[in-house]
Every structure is written in C-alpha cells, then in structure tokens.
Amino acid sequence: MSEEKLSPGHRDYVGALASGLDVLNAFDSSHSTMTLSEVAEQAGMDRAKARRFLLTLHSLGYIDRDGRQFRLTPKVLGLSSAYGASNDHISVVEHYLRDVTTRLGESSSLGVLDQHDIIYVVRSPAAHRLMSISLSAGTRLPAAYTSMGRVLVSRMPKVEQRIWLDSLTLEAFTEHSITDPVKFEAMLDQVRAQDYCVVDQELDLGLRSLAVPAVAYNGDVLGAINLSTNASRVSHQALVEECLPVLKDAVEQIRLHTK
Fold first, then answer.
1. Which of 33, 98, 119, 199 is the most buried (most CB within 10 A)?
2. What pLDDT, on a 0 to 100 scale, did the predictor assign at position 28?
3. What are phi and psi of 153, to 5 degrees?
C-alpha cells in the first residue's frame, strides 16, 4: 500500500497541517516541557509561526500551558489509540510478542521506519529494564543504530536505500557504533543477505538486540520485530542460535494470522 507522496509546494499539500504536526513532534522524552523559543528551534520554524500553532493546539486541547512552558496533554494519546483501533494486525502482533517474551524472558517489540527513525508501535516488556530511557509505543530511536531500523533499510530497493543513506548522518552513540559509511553499507548488504540483524551495544552500552522483518499474509511489510537483551546475560551466539528461531516462528505466525 504505497502511493507517491506529495511534496511541499504541491497544490494539494497543506503546509499548515504539516507545521502543526511538526510542533507536536517537537516534544519527546528529552523535550517534554519547552518554552516558545525552544519549540520553534525543535520544530525548525520562527517564533511567530510556532506561537500560532502552539496557541491553536492549546485551544484544541493537545497542548497545556503553564506560564512560558508548554507541554503535551493526554489528548494526544487518542491519536495513537486510533491507529491501534484501525489496524487489525496490531492485536495479532501483540499476542505473538507476548509469546516471545514468555518463551525467552526478554522484551520484544514491533517497530516501523519513519524516515531516519524507528517508531515503536507495539511492545512486550520484560521485567528488567535495559535502556537508560523508557520504551513504549510512540518512542523514536535512530534507525541506523537499531536492529529493527537496519533490517528494514536493508530491504529497501537500492535506489530508495541510496537516497536514505545520502541523507543519513552517522554518529557515535558508543565506542562500538559504526560511523564509517563504507562499513555501514557493507553491514546493510550482510543484513539483507541473512534477513536478520544483530546490533551489539552500538546505541546503548550493554544493550544487544536482534530483529527480523514482519510481513502480513498479503505481502505487506508490517515492520520489524526485535528482541532486546543485556549483553552480559545473552551472548551474540546465543542470540542467533537460540533466540532467532523463536523470532522467526513469531513472524511466521504473524504472517499466517494477518490476512
């Protein structure tokens, strides 16, 4: 289900709507409360424009205001719940992610690619916390340094992948992060060939993750599902030899039950 997207400047492209969404997306775990100037900077627009959108969103109930500080309200959760309610496959994926967590005792998630980010759509958390930030539906992480992001980028048509890579900025989150473009592309070729990806402490020290693509019965790509674990508890070899078959079984069950 992919149709050509409108570009800014097209007669049917509503710039005001796009800017309003940019303001909403400016808020994240690192910017939960911001001043007008901070929102403008995060959203990439001038203060006057950001002010109009903030005040409009405030009047609609999506933004709360306390003096100079702005924050999101719980009303924005209605947008994500509407997504879940309108996608029949979500409940199926959630069922099999819980099964993965039960069988392996590790957190499992479904993520989708959004430009250079992975967005968590469904998550089955284990009791232990692995990352320095809390992960939940809607969390964004840099796709280049997540196993889900890499496995999805590796499946892109080469022309699309080239465009994606040319606009990518590689950065070192840890001393293990791949920052050389040539090595990064070679890694993507390997991921494509094996159809799974392991990311070993490149985003967060101590975090090791494994991901495989998830496809519906009709062939639509639903995203990627992953397993995240502590590097000191589960070795790279164990992740591939013991956990990969469980993830592959899960995506096969998801494929069969998402007609």
1. 199
2. 79
3. -65, -35
Predicted confidence at residue 84, as pLDDT, reads: 59
Q: How many CB atoms lie within 10 A of CB 50?
A: 25
**Under-70 pLDDT residues of the chain:** 1-4, 80-88, 128-134, 259
Contact, 51 vs 68, CB < 8 A? no
Q: What is the pLDDT of residue 130?
A: 59
Question: Phi and psi for 166 in degrees, rounded to 5?
Answer: -65, -25
Of the candidates 46, 52, 67, which has an alpha carbon nearest to the alpha carbon of residue 20? 52
Provide the 10 A C-beta neighbour count for residue 253: 15
pLDDT at 17: 87
| R_g (Cα) of the chain, nearest Å | 19
How many Cα neighbours within 13 Å face the side chain of 68? 4
pLDDT at position 3: 57
Beta strands of 68-220 (E only): which ranges?
69-72, 107-114, 117-124, 140-142, 197-200, 207-215
State residue 4's pLDDT score: 65
For residues 125 and 135, is the Cβ–Cβ distance under 8 A? yes
Single-letter amino acid, residue 183 = K
Relative to beta strand 221-230, strand 107-114 is: antiparallel
**Integer distance in angstroms from the first to the last C-alpha of the chain?**
14
Question: Which residue, among 139, 87, 90, 93, has the nearest Cα to 117 in the 3D structure?
Answer: 139
250 vs 225: CA distance, rounded Å: 9
